[in-house]
Fold this protein.
Amino acid sequence: MMKIECLSVHPHLIDHIARWHFDEWHSLYPERTLDDFVADLRESLGEHAVPSTWLIFHQGELSGTAAVLQHDMETNRELTPWLANVYIKQDKRGLGLGRKVVHHVMSAHGKQSDEPLFLFTEDQQAFYQSMGWQEIKQECYANKPVSVMQFIPASRTDIVA
């Protein structure tokens, strides 16, 4: 069984999730501390669409996350909002959970807006392209080559997970 819920339903998991995110992406944000990652997650507890964090549970166990943030890069500040923090626990990868949580976020965004959603990735371009994302540019970010991608909802109601 799989379910996706908003972080606001599970605020007690913030410290655990912050550790996942810090361990996974600290190299992209070397100036940020674990406490900064905790603070960012706390911002997702409001009722706003941005920022928001979604949790995916598989067989009752917290297995991953995805978020929508106002900004996710120090560059490209003109682009907003961003799909970010797509993370699946190592032992849960390969089960399609990443695809499910990303589709959930895309659908939620598409119901609220017909504006593009952006992301950047070091190595998951094919994964996102398979869900309708398009690369708009490549750049070096935090000394790593990344692709900046966008998803444009076809309409507010026709995104199918």
The chain is about 25% helix and 30% strand. The helical segments are 14-25, 34-43, 97-112, 125-129. Strands lie at 2-6, 52-58, 61-69, 82-88, 117-121, 134-141, 144-151.
